[in-house]
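Input (F0F1 ATP synthase subunit A):
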Amino acid sequence: MKDNKKRSVLFLLFLIIAGLGKTMSQEVNVGEIVFSHIKDSYEWHITQWDNKEIAIPLPVIVHSPERGWFVFPSSELSHGKAYNGFFIASSGAYEGKILERNTAGDEIRPFDLSITKNVLGLMLSTFILLFIVLKLANWYKNKPLEAPSGWKGMIEMLILFIKDGVIKENIGDDYLKYTTYLLTVFFFHLDK
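Output:
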């Protein structure tokens, strides 16, 4: 048993040292890595494998003032390509946003309703939160006198803490009319 623990610890140390050696030999710009994953884009970048980008293209929905509505996948605009007169600006005030050239030759920004990475993240968060809340509400409806356990008990404890320890403490006796809204805001931010 002790030999297995020693081997596991030695193997873990080897992996850490090997990983440090690799990162020390390369210049790593942490800010660039973090901000490239945080900023909004028209595709959901997953990873890079053998110098090939792996990403999920998201739908682009734009309205050109001169030509009308267009719906197409963002993969049509990847790597500096233009699609049907639309392109992603590489610099300037609209860097990373979709532009088009009008008949006068000016670069203009079309009305953009695209599902971007941030929009998709908000949608996923909303659906997860809605699923959890509806599942919990259904459980309470079917078993009103039973004490919750597991994840249901944890969520009830969290709700009671926020309601009594945060909302009531800060608002006072008139806290009940604000509770539903403030709990919704809290859970929406917690889910992100």
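The chain has a mean pLDDT of 84.
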